[in-house]
Structure formats: C-alpha cells, structure tokens
Amino acid sequence: MAIPIPSRQLFINGNWTEPLLKKHIPIINPSTEEIIGDIPAATAEDVDVAVEAARRALTRNKGKDWATASGAVRAKYLRAIAAKRKPELAKLETVDCGKPLKESEADMDDVISCFEYYAELAEGLDAKQKAPISLPLKAFKSHVIKEPIGVVGLIVPWNHPLLMAIWKVAPTLAAGCAAILKPSETCLELGEVCREVDLPVGVLSILPGLGPEAGAPLASHPPC
C-alpha cells in the first residue's frame, strides 16, 4: 500500500518538538521490509519536559484547567477527537503493522467507540461530584469527591497501536488527568488530531522511543 508517512517530531505541550538528543528510529513496513520513514526517539530529557508541560496543564488559569473542567467539557474534546481522520489513520496503521486494511478499519471503529464510551462516563462524573454517604450518626457528614490523580504515564505495544493507546488515553483524559503516551509509530498522528480540535496544550504528550531510553524514565519518574 503506497501512502506517505507524515514526518513528525515529538508531540509536547501542543507542539511538534524535536528530541533534545535528536535521535530517530526507522519505520519498517513489515510486508516489504522497506524503510518507509522514521520517528523521533525520546529520551529521559524529553520525558522531563513533557511531565512539566502536563503539570502546567493541570494547574493553569486559576482553576480553568483540565483537572477542574467539567466532565461535559472533557467529553466534548473526546468526541471531537473521535470524529477525525478514520480512513487516513486506518491506512497508516496497515502500513505500520502489516495487517489487512479491513482489520485496521475495524480497529478505527473501535477507537471511535472507545472515545464515545468514555465521553459518556466523563459526563456522568458531573452528577457524582461530592456524593453524600449515609452514616449511622447524624452528627457526622461524609462525601466522596472524585478527583483526577494528576499526570499519568502510558506505555502501549505495537500490535494494535492506536486502539491500545486509546484504551489508556480516553479514560485518562475523561477523568481529568494529563497523559504522557509512549506509543508505537502511527500514534503520533493522534497529536495532529489533538491540534485540530484545540485540545488544551500539555494535556496529552506523545513520546515514542526505545524502552530503556524513554519507557524506563517515564515509568520511574517521580509522581506528580
């Protein structure tokens, strides 16, 4: 299948950013074993930059941040992302993985369904905030407050790249957390989709790279 592979950098803070150490990894089409492009390779230095951007996304604008946005607002973004680029993403997935196009198209349908599912759950969170808990003693009151846990690191495999990424990205964003995704190659296009729907900067960063150089620093990064 002849399809151009977009030239991308790391997706950090809403922008395409060259890796600080300028490392890249070739993309190989499994069906032809040809090198059809390359992707940026993040390192610990890039992980630190992305983590800081995610922290800012959760605390900026005096409360008008991703963590305190309503579930309805977050759902709007999830649905907007789901509506973008199905045919193009399916073709990229096929070239990257070597799977049949029909299977990739089915994966994209599942991606859309996943975003829709978590958009509904995000909307449902609005009705559950500060839910009272019944106690036997009337002198006491207790409430459950559902709050985002902060910055979340996500590492996903290659065999269903975008779908497996969305299994993690969608619930993370729906809950009001910021995410740093270390994915397989074609997931970088998710960054361009986020730009198209004006997802608040820093909410999602995408850092492909090798396990020891990008995955390990992300997994071992101090909690935010």
- Principal-axis shape equals globular
CATH class categorisation: Alpha Beta
CATH topology: Aldehyde Dehydrogenase, Chain A, domain 1
User: How many strands appear in the DSSP assignment?
Assistant: 9
Fourth CATH level, the homologous superfamily: Aldehyde Dehydrogenase, Chain A, domain 1
What proportion of the residues form beta strands (DSSP E)?
15-25%
How would you write the strand order of the largest sheet?
Answer: 7-8-9
- Report the oligomer: single chain
Tell me which CATH architecture applies here: 3-Layer(aba) Sandwich
* CA distance, first residue to last residue: 43 Å
Q: Poorly predicted ranges (pLDDT <50, ≥5 residues)?
A: none
- Supply the helix-strand structural class: alpha/beta
Q: Give the mean pLDDT.
A: 87
Share in helix: 40-55%
In N-to-C order, the SSE pattern is EEEEHHHHEEEHEHEH
Q: How many domain regions? A: 1
**Biggest beta sheet summary:** 3 strands, parallel
Give the number of helices: 7
Notable traits:
alpha/beta; two-stranded antiparallel ribbon; 3-stranded parallel sheet; globular; Aldehyde Dehydrogenase, Chain A, domain 1; 224 residues
Account of the 3D structure:
The protein has 224 residues and is an alpha/beta fold. It has a single domain, classed as Aldehyde Dehydrogenase, Chain A, domain 1. It is built from seven helices and nine strands, in the order E-E-E-E-H-H-H-H-E-E-E-H-E-H-E-H. The strands form four sheets. A three-stranded parallel β-sheet has the order 7-8-9, sandwiched between helices. A two-stranded antiparallel sheet has the order 1-2. Strands 3-4 form a two-stranded antiparallel sheet. Helix 3 (86-97) packs across helix 4 (101-125) and helix 4 (101-125) packs parallel to helix 5 (161-174). The longest helix has 25 residues, at 101-125. It is globular, with a radius of gyration of 19 Å. The model has no long low-confidence stretch (mean pLDDT 87). It is an enzyme of class 1 (oxidoreductase). InterPro entries: Ald_DH/histidinol_DH, Ald_DH_N, Aldehyde_DH_dom. GO terms for molecular function: aminobutyraldehyde dehydrogenase (NAD+) activity. Pfam families: Aldedh (PF00171). This is aminobutyraldehyde dehydrogenase.
